[in-house]
């Protein structure tokens, strides 16, 4: 899938990553969110999962560019040692629509202010190294029926337009449901009409503004 400077890059899915720093466990959870309400729900789910932890440092970025809502908290750690360092790394990643919670289990050895800043910063960096990426796009899902003779070409056409097949039913003919970015929608429909010599009917079954489309490597 192509990627350009205007793409709004987001997490593809929820991930969890862990590392140890001087006996303290730092467990970082991250995932896609599209509103402050979703971010708060994500944070609450992580807190519920690790209720016995010493700290849950929340960070989130909603939106992209100049329209971003940013939030962080030190969550009981010394002021300026957790939330802000984590947020700085997250902002530097270029990602948006992401919530992160760094859960800490104290290991008995104090890290000091400098050690905490490094640990919380590294928690986000290490998470970003394993985080699968996607782009947020407006999409339309179409359902249509084609003969078997056009099935392979229809599959290739979806791939060429950076779309995905989300359902296929084989009967007397093939019923396909495909999801396409709106910017490619007209082109795809024209090409399919050409292939089918006009004998095809598209039914719009869903439209989304915040579709997570995984980035192909």
Description:
- This protein has 217 residues and is α+β, with helices and mostly antiparallel strands.
- The protein has 2 domains: 9-131, Ribosomal Protein S5, domain 2 (2-Layer Sandwich), CATH 3.30.230; 135-214, Alpha-Beta Plaits (2-Layer Sandwich).
- It contains 5 helices and 10 strands; from the N terminus they run βββαββαβαβαββαβ.
- It has helices at residues 36-49, 83-92, 112-130, 151-160, 182-195; strands at 9-11, 15-21, 24-32, 55-62, 69-72, 98-105, 133-146, 164-170, 174-181, 203-214.
- The strands form 2 sheets. Strands 1, 7, 8, 9 and 10 form a 5-stranded antiparallel β-sheet that branches.
- A hairpin with a 2-residue loop joins strand 2 (15-21) and strand 3.
- It is elongated, with a radius of gyration of 22 Å.
- The protein starts with 8 loop residues before the first strand and ends with a strand.
- The mean pLDDT is 90.
Keywords:
217 residues, alpha+beta, Ribosomal Protein S5, domain 2, Alpha-Beta Plaits, 2 domains, 5-stranded antiparallel β-sheet, 5 helices, 31% helix
Structural class: alpha+beta
User: Which percent range fits the helix content?
Assistant: 25-40%
Radius of gyration, in Å, reads 22 Å
Helix count, per DSSP? 5
- CATH top level label of the largest domain: Alpha Beta
Order of helices and strands: EEEHEEHEHEHEEHE
* Envelope shape: elongated
What does the largest sheet look like?
5 strands, antiparallel
Arithmetic mean of pLDDT: 90
Number of strands: 10
């Amino acid at each position: 899938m192509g990627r350009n400077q205007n793409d709004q890059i987001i997490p593809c899915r929820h991930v969890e990553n862990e590392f140890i720093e001087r006996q303290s466990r730092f467990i970082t959870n991250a995932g896609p969110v599209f509103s402050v309400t979703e971010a708060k729900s994500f944070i609450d789910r992580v807190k519920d999962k690790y209720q016995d932890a010493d700290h849950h440092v929340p960070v989130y970025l909603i939106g992209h560019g100049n329209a971003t809502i940013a939030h962080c908290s030190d969550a009981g750690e010394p002021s300026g040692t957790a939330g802000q360092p984590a947020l700085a790394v997250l902002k530097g990643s270029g990602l948006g629509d992401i919530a992160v919670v760094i859960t800490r289990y104290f290991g008995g050895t104090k890290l000091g202010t400098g050690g905490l800043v490094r640990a919380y910063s590294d928690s986000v960096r290490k998470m970003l190294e394993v985080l699968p990426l996607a782009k947020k796009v407006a999409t339309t899902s179409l359902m249509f029926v084609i003969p078997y003779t056009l099935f392979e070409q229809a599959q290739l056409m979806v791939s060429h337009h950076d779309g995905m097949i989300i359902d296929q039913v084989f009967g007397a003919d093939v019923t396909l449901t495909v999801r396409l970015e709106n910017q490619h929608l007209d082109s795809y429909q024209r090409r399919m009409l050409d292939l089918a010599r006009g004998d095809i009917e598209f039914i719009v079954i869903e439209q989304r503004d915040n579709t997570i489309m995984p980035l192909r490597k």
